[in-house]
Amino acid sequence: MTKLIVRPHPDPDGEGRVLSITPESAGWEYVGFELLRLSEGQQLSRETGSQEICLVILSGIADVSTKNGEWCGIGKRMSVFERTPPYSVYVPNGDKYDIHALTQLEVAVCAAPGRGNHSARLIAPEQVGAEIRGAGSIERQVHNILPENEPADSLLVVEVFTPNGHWSSYPPHKHDRDSLPDESMLEETYYFRVQPDQGFALQRVYTDDRSLDETLVVKDGEAVLVPEGYHPVSAPPGYDVYYLNVMAGPKRTWKFHNDPDHEWIMTASHTSR
Question: What EC class does the entry list (predicted)?
Answer without folding.
Answer: isomerase
